[in-house]
Input
Amino acid sequence: MLDFCDYLKYQHRHSSHTIDLNERNVQRFQRWAMGTAISMDEPTHRGIMDYIRHLANRGNEQSSIYQHLNSLDHYFSYLIFTGEGRSNPIKNIKEKLQGIRRGVLHDIIALEDLHQLYRDYPTATSTDMLYKIIVGLLVFQGITTGEMAKIELHHLDLDRLSIFIPSCMRSNSRVLPLDPEQIYDLQTYLYQTRERILLEANKESRFFIVSTGKSDHIHGVLQSLMKRLKTMYPDLTYGAKQIRASVIAHWLKEYDLRKTQRLAGHKFLSSTERYEEMYMTDELREDLEMFHPLG
Output
């Protein structure tokens, strides 16, 4: 049977220097694992993250940590090759790191920050109030801008504190609860602001969200709001999509996949699973931000 060094030499054509480096890195991990409750042959995902923190706390640079991950990647692949191991925990971690680096999905905004974004939004003018209602639908219901454009007046039920979200090409219809923080602003908008906007534009509309111009289309309203939000909140790089992604991520922490799928309106469970795969727990994401080997 090939030992680890021969495996690197004959299976990967590594040089003697690279083989020595990989062997030293694996031995370092094994010495650390012996002093913990971590399995040396099949450590858990959390165990590897603990080791990354250990390396970082010992002053290792990001490039050095990544070298250690590469060495362990080879080692656990070797164990699978020889039949001594069943899984490679490094693969999953590296894929997640690379996924975050590629920006496949957008950065999560903390739940309290989302709610504060809504609370802090001004209501000095009719346009401000209109924008705040839209922000509330994004923050509390996590709907898409396409769905927002289809909501009609009768879809809002303040008595039952709920709102019906019509289906779109990529989403299912659903009834979502309103958050208590929205109620006062929704009433003000519904019975005062909205009527004032329609009167000033000299038009009528069956839609809940109305534009300030002659048209019923709210694309311009949404575009203006996103520009304003990016100015007010520089971390909001991706606008409405980033808010929705953050809301779904927080739902996944509170509910199971099926309920999150219903809340998000996803037609396919795989769409919801994508968020679960790409977004890890807050603790793990904090670890990756602090000790990001691919940075």
In short: The chain is about 60% helix and 5% strand. The chain has a mean pLDDT of 85. The two ends are 38 Å apart (CA to CA).
